[in-house]
């Protein structure tokens, strides 16, 4: 099977009914970069910038951050990279950043919340990213946005950094796209306000599902209790996809669930045309997509999302099995 996946490396992921699905990878360190090309992925859909901070013993300096991002862009060789700004806090604690002990770290002072409270951190990260991407394409997104105002505040900081570039006579990125992650359920009910402001949305299914079911993603006792292929989750996704379509904003999904072929199959049927998955999942997911009739599965799903079943997994498993 490994050899079969390798043969598919240069084959684009297109369903039987002609839908092109972009398969990106999740990454965060230089060692991940070769996988981008080996797996034949379309780009990096989630670059977790906090990993550079987590492996360092002191806050990486501006010059270190800039050199790192610049290397990432060099090695991506023109394939798009979506940098996610710092997602620390929660389970990803920086020893050199003072923080209080929290009762519920996943719900606590983390990600964009820290970035907005300690603006110097985000400002330097923007500066490093903008300098690294000078004259190149830059894609950025913010983690854990729960309210539109948080996106606006971060975006305003980015705009100030862009103006600063002009003042010091440095070239801006050749093009810039700024998006938001959707991993806090509240944001799904603000889409008509948010979508006009963003260039793209990326669902972070790991956190989203932990908040959706109030079920700790790291606790094995409850982690497998709820199924992602439940009508509750899938109809939530259907709502988000419909709003994004209405506003003509591209949507992708990153997170572990999209790396499993049955889950990926279901997401494509719901209208996702962009997934970001672990590198090892690119082959298996691509093989599935080449065999999938997306419109047929959408029709099969029909009103099943509105039924009270606990999960549609058995139905979807049978569907996949009957079609090879
Ligand atoms: C997610 O929450 O789904 C996600 C992609 O981000 P992380 O796993 O880094 O929290
Ligand atoms: Mg997350």
UniProtKB/TrEMBL annotation:
Record's subcellular location: Cytoplasm
Domain of life assignment: Bacteria
Family in the record: Belongs to the PEP-utilizing enzyme family.
Protein name in UniProt: phosphoenolpyruvate--protein phosphotransferase
């Amino acid at each position: 099977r490994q050899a079969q996946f390798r043969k598919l490396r240069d084959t684009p992921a297109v369903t039987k009914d002609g839908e092109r699905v972009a398969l990106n990878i999740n990454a965060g360190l230089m060692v991940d970069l070769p996988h981008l090309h080996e797996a034949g992925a379309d780009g990096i859909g989630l670059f977790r910038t906090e990993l550079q901070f987590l492996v360092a013993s002191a806050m990486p300096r501006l010059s270190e951050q800039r050199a790192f991002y610049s290397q990432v862009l060099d090695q991506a060789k023109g394939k798009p990279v979506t940098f996610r700004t710092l997602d620390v806090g929660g389970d990803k604690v920086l020893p050199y950043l003072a923080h209080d002990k929290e009762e519920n770290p996943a719900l606590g002072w983390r990600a964009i919340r820290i970035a907005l409270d300690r603006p110097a951190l985000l400002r330097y990260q923007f500066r490093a990213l903008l300098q690294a991407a000078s004259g190149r394409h830059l894609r950025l997104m913010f983690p854990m946005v729960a309210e539109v105002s948080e996106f606006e505040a971060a975006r305003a900081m980015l705009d100030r950094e862009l103006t600063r570039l002009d003042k010091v006579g440095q070239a801006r990125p050749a093009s810039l796209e700024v998006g938001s992650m959707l991993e806090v359920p509240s944001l799904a009910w603000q889409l008509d306000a948010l979508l006009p402001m963003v260039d793209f949305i990326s669902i972070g299914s790991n956190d989203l599902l932990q908040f959706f079911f109030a079920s700790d993603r790291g606790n094995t006792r409850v982690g497998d209790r709820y199924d992602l292929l439940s009508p509750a989750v899938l109809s939530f996704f259907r709502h988000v996809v419909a709003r994004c379509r209405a506003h003509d904003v591209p949507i992708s999904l990153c997170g572990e669930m999209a790396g499993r072929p049955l889950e990926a199959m279901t997401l494509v049927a719901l209208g996702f045309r962009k997934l970001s998955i672990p590198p090892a999942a690119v082959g298996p997911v691509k093989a599935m997509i080449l065999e999938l009739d997306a419109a047929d599965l959408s029709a099969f799903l029909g009103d099943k999302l509105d039924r009270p079943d606990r999960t549609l997994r058995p139905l979807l498993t049978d569907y996949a099995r009957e079609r090879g």
